Amino acid sequence: MTILYAILLGLIQGIAEFLPISSSGHLSILNNLFGLSTAEEGHVFFDVLLHLGTLVSIFVVYWKDIAAMINEVLGFVRIGPAAGERKRRYPAARLFLMIVLATLPLVLVLPMKDELESLYYNSIFIGVALILTGCMLYVSDRMVPGKKTETNMTVLDALIIGLCQCAAVIPGLSRSGTTITAGISTGLNRDFAVKFAFLMSIPAVLGANLLSLIDALQEGINWSLMPAYLIGTAVAALSGIASIRLLHAIAKKGRFGGFAYYCWVMGVLAIILTLIF
Q1: Range of the domain at 109
Q2: SS3 of the chain
C-alpha cells in the first residue's frame, strides 16, 4: 500500500461516512469493480483505523455535547445535594438516554451478520440500495420542518430512528441519510437530526470496530505500513470534520436534493458497470 493509496481511501472514508451517500456502498463498488479495498491481506487493521479516524471527527465537532452528556449523567446519578433537585432538567443527560435507546435495536442485526456481509459483493444490489437512498433524501427535502430537540423528543422517536439505523447496515443504504431522514420524519429539527444521527453512530462504530479489531489481530498487522496507515487515518479524520460541518450547513437550508441526484447517478452507474463487466 502506497501513501497515495492510503490518502485516497482516507478521503473516501471521511467524505462518504458522513455525507449521505453510503461509505460502505462506495467502498464495495470500488472493491468489486476496480479491486480498490482495505480488505487485502494485512489491511484489515487499516480499515479499523479509518473508522477510528471518522470517530475522531465526531468527537472534535461535538466535543461540547459529549462533555455536557458526561457531566450531566454524572451529576444526575451523583449522591449529594444535586440528587435532591428532582425538578432540574438535564437536557444533555436526556440526549445520552435517547442515544442509548436508539442504539439498542442494533442487537437485532447481529444474527444476520454473515448474510449482510455477503451483500458487499453484489454491486447490483448496492446500486439499487443507492437509488433508494436517493429517494429517501429527495423525500426528506419535502418534509415539513420539525421543532423537536433533545428536550422534547420521545422514546418512540429514538426507537424509530434506531430501527432505521438497523436497516442502514445494508451496504448502499446511507446510515447518515437513513437516520437523518428518520429523524426529520419524527419531527426533529433538521440541524438536531444531523447531530443526533452522528452522535448515535459512536456506540455503533465502536462496537463494529471492536469486532473488526479481533479479525485484524488474528490476521496480523504489517507494521512497515504503519506510516501510510496513520496518514490515511489523519486524512479520514480531517475530511470527516469538513463533511460534518458541510452537512450541518446544508441541513439548515433543508436541501439534500443534490445528494439524492448523486446517489441516483452512482446507483445506476454501479448497475450498468456490473452488467457490462
Answers
A1: 3-276
A2: CCHHHHHHHHHHHHHHHHCCCCHHHHHHHHHHHHCCCCCCCCCHHHHHHHHHHHHHHHHHHCHHHHHHHHHHHHHHHCCCHHHHCCCCCCHHHHHHHHHHHHHHHHHHHHHHHHHHHHHHHCHHHHHHHHHHHHHHHHHHHCCCCCCECCCCCCHHHHHHHHHHHHHCCCCCCCHHHHHHHHHHHCCECHHHHHHHHHHCHHHHHHHHHHHHHHHHHHHCCCHHHHHHHHHHHHHHHHHHHHHHHHHHHHHHHCCCHHHHHHHHHHHHHHHHHHHHC
